[in-house]
Amino acid sequence: MQAAYELEGKTALVTGAAARIGAAICETLHAEGAHVVVHYRSSADRAQALVDRLNSERAGSASLVQGDLCDMQRVPQLVDEVLAARGRLDVLINNASSYYPTPLGTATQAQWDDLFGSNARAPFFLSQAAAPALRERHGCIVNLLDIHADRPNSEHTVYSMAKAANAMLVKSLARELAPQVRVNGVAPGAALWPEHYLDDADRQEILKRIPMGRPAGAEQIVRAVMFMVTGSDYITGQILAVDGGRSVQQ
User: Is 99 labeled as catalytic in the residue annotation?
Assistant: First the structure.
């Protein structure tokens, strides 16, 4: 049985796509026939290496856009650049995210602006800029969220609030953009480990709260994203938790 939404010949923009889950999403979209536009902020070498690898597999099948998603002038320009180069936009994956603790009493306005900027404001304004093109192509948006949008993470109040705003964005845009555009979300729990912190004791404590007993790898998250892109033309406004059962724990 064919997928409900075929990717052959379509254009997909993935934010924060130079490495980790973003890069894995790009690789899978590319394998399904899409032209992938890899967005990055500062990881130029990794982003270029990914695009070079994809283009070596299929010439002219991947390209780059660069921009700080907290720069409100730059956000709509990213969509303009994709449309100028490709003439279409079919899939938007809002993956880029800042993530770090902001213990109460230490949080700064700069941290607030960064966490809300990358996790809530940029996905909204990027989706707004992309909406006309996505409507024209009957495309879709998938936002990467976090189970902590619903269950706050200790010492991550600002991040959790920003992801909660993103979750409401999924539901609101699903109403605003229907029936032409589907909008859904994928909410990982422990998916890969953060690159910059968490010691072994912290990791073991997290694993105790995951019924499946292990963190998700990129593959599990990518499968959920791909289901939201290609799995059904009737699912919209939904957020799929991919957390090994962690969200059902106390």
Answer: no
